[in-house]
Design goal:
This protein is of the alpha+beta class. The protein has 2 domains: about 1-195, no CATH class; about 200-270, Alpha-Beta Plaits (2-Layer Sandwich). The protein has 11 helices and 4 strands, in the order H-H-H-H-H-H-H-H-H-E-H-E-E-H-E. The chain has helices spanning about 1-10, 10-35, 45-55, 60-80, 80-100, 110-130, 140-150, 155-170, 175-195, 210-220, 250-260, and strands at about 200-205, 225-230, 240-245, 265-270. Helix 2 packs antiparallel against helix 6, helix 4 (about 60-80) runs parallel beside helix 7 and helix 8 (about 155-170) packs antiparallel against helix 9.
Amino acid sequence: MVIQKRLQTYTIPWNLFLITAGSFIFAVGVKAVALPHEFISGGMTGLCLLLYYWTNWLTPGIWYFIINVPIFIVGWLFISRRFFLYSIYGMATLSVAIDLIPFTFPVHDHMLAAIAGGAIIGTGAGVTLHSLGSSGGNDVIAVFLNQKFNLRMGTFFFGFNLVLFGFSLGIIEVDRVLYSLVMSFVTAQVLDHVLTIFNQRKIVFIISEASQAIAAAVNTRLRRGGTFLYGRGTYTRKRRKIVMTVLNNFELKRLEEIVFDIDPDAFVIIERTFNVLGRGFSHRKVY
């Protein structure tokens, strides 16, 4: 099952589907929500608009092409050629999708529009970045920084837009900049959530006198493995085995029942993980 899922992740039809679906969702957020309220687009598009306003030279489209040339060279050289080709497709699909969206959402309140637009755009970007490509522009830089320095993509997008909107304060009215900043913040949060929604797991530490029985029950009833960590109590000074295991949210309640049925005095620590790589969970993403 794990092998089949991994093979599907690397198939061309699956990646084209993710990029296409994500691009159209993203385009709905931009065309149907953000543009009718005249919010400032973030990322490289917003940078190109500011360059056009400041210099009054060339057009935003030409600026966008000029800026994307070195960005795609980075994708080709430092990520992969496969990522480069998927990103070319993603950039083209997003451009077409924005032109094809014929409707707008009847949201009149600017704050509600900023929240709705950010949620839709973040979802679309997250779906696209689940593939082995991107939509070009800032996505390429975000993937590069994530691969090299483990910088969260949503954090990079929001930080970039924060600087961009700061420079735009002297050109565009303050209210519009602030609404755009709200939309950017929501986009970043939703993007990170979409990227991690299928990878989040719970790591559980179980301290008990019946650790051997609990570990055996986890193996047989939950079909999950675990690891014994050896520790010593600071008060009793007794050595004991600590059971460490990783579960999804649906298995957590069953684990609690197993543990406290065996040992009502057990001590259980539950922590949320950002990502879990390995057999039975997520596999390492290779672009």
